[in-house]
Amino acid sequence: MKKQVGIEALAIAVPRKYVDIAELAQARGVDPAKYTSGLGAKEMAVADPGEDSVALAASAAARLIQEQGVDTSRIGMLVVGTETGVDHAKPVASHVQGLLKLPRTMRSFDAQHACYGGTAGLMAASEWIASGAGAGRTALVICSDIARYGLNTAGEPTQGGGAVALLVSEQPDLLALDIGLNGASTQDVYDFWRPSGRREALVDGHYSIGCYLDALSGAYRGWRERALAHEVVRWGDTLPSEQLARILYHVPFCKMARKAHTQLRQCDLEASAATQNATPAEREELAKSTASYEAQVASSLTLNARIGNVYTASLYLALAGLMNAEAAALAGKRIGLLSYGSGCCSEFYSGVVGANAAQRIAKANVEGVLARRERISVAEYERIMNLASDAPEQLAPAPGEFRLKEIREHRRAYVAG
């Protein structure tokens, strides 16, 4: 029997404060619909200097270990996917290992490739386990980032922050991955980047969307070729993508998922013999199917709409949202996942939702995590954004969470709640 490998459980951590996106729009003299309907946003997480990528990663991992009863002695690999690391040499993973007192007898590293880093870590961990090199051990993969573009910028309403911790093992209660079916696409482009020393990213917005959609097409076609060869999907009355119960996308802003889904359907329609007689315009209209989007994508976006962009964690926040909404109904069904990282690399992969997914996601208590946040005014949000990154306010972390306390002689010290 082929070994099953995948995500056993997950947990999330988010900044303690958020701003209402409609209120932000009003403060900027913008019609709120431009942010709420145009971007699909509702709320935006606001991280203060004490809530850096280390603190968020450690908080998510600590929550996962506590809520899911993880045996830390069995963790053989720790990977943190991030594009907002705190040091050019010392990885976030090393901080997490120390803060959580995880085993010294394990491999640990960070994975950086813009928003793709978390998926790179997940694939490294799952393939390590599937190969047998893990020798029965588990892996901890954490996606942790803070999306920051600055006050009064075009990207301001697409900021956010948070972390998702994934336990990867041979007991994939949440999602058993289809190892080996992955499709990937990579290209050297300058669509989004953050030069060393900058807190805010630089982005060529329209070009980046085009790069995302082009990379999605290449990655999806690669997955489809392998999935057809293994008869995971088939050409027939329904398109291959329609045979996936749900499809999750990287979500820099929620409306991007609709663009991505249209592009993915276009890939199938262009290759479908049943639509070869249709004109390109007719195929484009079919690709925009609202029914398909509502059935396959919409239910995964609830958390992203309330937190904002989380870079490497955005896809896995969508996974948490989907499982929180539909885990029981999706048990035994196959879903697809699309990861994209600017620069660029994209990967499409799939997996089967586990029979115990509902119990696992219930333990994660994602609604409770969000309910503990504090809504702040736009003025308070602006005050926080203007704080120096190396001088965190001395606030007590919540029980089980972590905060940056100080930076002394370039050494970062954290405190636990």
Name the descriptors.
417 residues; alpha+beta; Peroxisomal Thiolase, Chain A, domain 1; 10-stranded mixed beta sheet; 3-stranded mixed beta sheet; 14 helices; 17 strands; globular
List the helices and strands and how they pair.
Elements: E1 6-13, E2 17-20, H1 21-27, H2 32-36, E3 43-46, H3 53-68, E4 75-81, H4 92-99, E5 107-111, H5 117-130, E6 138-147, E7 160-169, E8 175-177, E9 183-186, E10 192-193, E11 202-203, H6 205-229, E12 246-249, H7 255-271, H8 280-287, H9 290-296, H10 302-307, H11 314-330, E13 334-341, E14 345-353, H12 357-364, H13 366-371, E15 374-376, H14 378-385, E16 402-408, E17 411-416
Parallel strand pairs: 2-15, 4-5, 4-6, 12-13
Antiparallel strand pairs: 1-7, 1-8, 2-3, 6-7, 8-14, 9-14, 10-11, 13-14, 16-17
Helix pairs in contact: 3-4, 6-7, 7-8, 11-12
